Amino acid sequence: MNIILNGESREVEKNASITRLLAALNIPLAKVAVERNLSIVPRSTFDAVILDDGDRIEIVRFIGGG
């Protein structure tokens, strides 16, 4: 199944959750925000949100600094 991830087409396994997507990308859950089809996904629902073909996903990583 295909999604658009940060503006680029990407193939993902069928029935993948946001948690599984982030794990496949080696992205820690603690320091990201995820938007799905223009709506912010609460971190507490990452495991329950199953991706659909054609979803538009934006992942933003938080970077500290000073």
Order of helices and strands: EEHEEE
CATH homology superfamily: Beta-grasp domain
CATH architecture: Roll
**Cα radius of gyration in angstroms:** 12 Å
For the largest sheet, list the strands in their spatial order: 2-1-5-3-4
**DSSP strand tally:** 5
CATH names the topology as Ubiquitin-like (UB roll)
Largest sheet: 5 strands, mixed
What is the CATH first-level class name?
Alpha Beta
* Domain tally: 1
Mean pLDDT: 94
User: How many separate helices?
Assistant: 1
- Flag low-confidence runs: none
> What would you call the shape?
globular
Could you explain the architecture of this structure?
- 11% of the residues lie in helices and 33% in strands.
- The mean pLDDT is 94.
- 6% of the residues are buried.
- It has a five-stranded mixed sheet with strand order 2-1-5-3-4, with no helix packed on it.
- The longest helix is centred in the first third of the chain and has 7 residues, at 18-24.
- The chain contains one helix and five strands.
- With 66 residues, the chain is mainly β.
- It has a single domain, classed as Beta-grasp domain (Ubiquitin-like (UB roll)).
- β3 and β4 (39-41) form a beta hairpin.
- It is globular.
Give the SSE map:
Elements: E1 2-5, E2 8-11, H1 18-24, E3 32-36, E4 39-41, E5 56-61
Parallel strand pairs: 1-5
Antiparallel strand pairs: 1-2, 3-4, 3-5
Q: Which descriptors would you attach to this protein?
A:
mainly beta; 5-stranded mixed β-sheet; 1 helix; 11% helix; 33% strand
